[in-house]
Amino acid sequence: NTTGNEESLKRRNMSLLIHERSHSYVSAGKLSEQLTATDIREDGKEDLGEWIGEALEDDIAVSAYGGYNENSSGADIQTINESYPTSDRIHYGGQNAAGTLATGPGAVVGASFTTDALLTADTTINNLFGTVIMESIKRRGIDATPKFRPVIIRNLSGANPDDLRSGKFLGPVLAKIMIVLASPLQLKAVKAETGNNGYKAMVSAAQIRGNMNPIFTGAEFYWDGMLVFEYDRVGTRTGAGGTTLAEGFLLNGTRVATTDACASGRTVNRALFMGAQAMSFGWAQKPGWSEDFVDNNKPKVKVDMLYGVKRTIFNAHGTSTPGSDEAIFCLDTEVIVDP
Q: How far is it, in rounded angstroms, from Cα 17 to Cα 28?
């Protein structure tokens, strides 16, 4: 009998601000249109369609790694809900090629540095990306509160087409995984690992078989429950002896300089470890077209949309105070730039 012992349902919430994101083009005039084979309306719409895809992916990537909504034109991209990684969801440090974790503060092996400035004050080859630091970050995600929920991969070929259309049954579960996005230079370090337990040893033995093989998923490799993808939009910062926005991830109060610049000539990349519901995306208006004329005879086409993107950060029960990042862990490592 559960009477009197019922538990109330609890829900957590979060705020997500939406804003307009738009772009447009206008003809240079009738003479200009006579000098090109370009169809100003049709070809221009295709180009704006490509811009939509680029803008959406850029906003999601910047929000995921905790970047700010500044851009090169000086106007804030307010569709990005700014939120720097919470302190318990970011690690500064890595490993060497042999798989030994870097010695962090207090001479503790595997301990995180507290800033990128301190990370890049250490030895570069001791703070690279690799399979050992990956395993460490995965364990932290599993031990986190709330626990990272895995991304469930299903075998769609094992489902009935009618069930797929209705969403009732999406096929048997193939794996429960964590998604990892790492830069090309970070993956270069993984492939340079030495010893008997690193990447090369794994590849020489065998990769996972079947539908989860990286060949079929588009991933670089599968490691200890993590599906690793090469991604060229992870955050990167390079020190140049100053405090410009390109030299550090963290900005000062006036948002004109970084307070955590990398050491001069040193580059840090920020890999992302993600479980289910790592990101939140809200539409208020899907992309829409509008057309007009400038000076009565110059065609202008505009595309606009209303949305917001943010790392999922639920509030604590019964409060408006954000907790920790829900299912995304950032890893800052140094990289060795190609000559």
A: 36
